[in-house]
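HUMAN: Mind making up another protein with tokenized structure?

ASSISTANT:
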Amino acid sequence: MKILLVENEENVRGVLREMIHQINPSQHQIEEASGVETGLQKIGTFQPDVLFLDVEMDDGTGFDLLKRLNAPSFQLIFTTAFNQYAMQAFKFSAIDYLMKPVDPVELSVTLSKAAENITQRNLHKQLEVLMQQLPGKSVQDGQIVLKDMDATYFVKISDIMYCMAEGAYTQFFIRQSDPVLVSKNLHSYEDLLAPAGFIRTHHSCLVNPSHIKMYDRKTESLVLEGGHTVPVSQRKKDYVIQLLENR
């Protein structure tokens, strides 16, 4: 597998190279670049299967590099220091990222996932979702990438009616579409979807208020478009009723 490390710091590139060699010393061919311009040149000549991409570099950002690519076909893994906004964008687009300093176990898991997905060609669409999360974009107007065992889905956030916890999984109920079961818990999506107005009505349920039709006092539940009903806990009831009254 051909791996390209586009990383601003030489010592970080060296550590990544050594860690990858330790994971599998004979399987990977590794090349390096230090910034946007050298990275673009290497991508053109080396044609990597996997790209490790730094977010902040001396001559621009990883986003700048991606904007200049036409139909990229590699697996993308961002490497970044703590940046809450960038992490949110990665999560919406389901693009993998590693926090610096890179943990060897997380690197091994992420690299294995990249190898498994090497034939998938969804990166262009995922990057579109990623760019939607950059400053100046409305979250509600954007998309989120959801993956189940069989497929990758590009879903308008405004079309999500509600999310229901299924143990360690989350079931997404989407307008005019079949539900999608994702292997992440509901808490993973609560902070992510809060800027789009989603509210936690119950420990097992996250709801998009724009799809709420009424609150049923008899059953203490919300009725959504399409006849869907979701529970409202006693603790959340007053908050939900006030929200509906003030719409």
Summary: The mean pLDDT is 90. The chain has two domains: 2-132, 143-245. Residues 10-23 form the longest helix (14 residues). Helices lie at 10-23, 36-46, 62-67, 84-93, 104-116, 123-132, 187-193, 234-245.
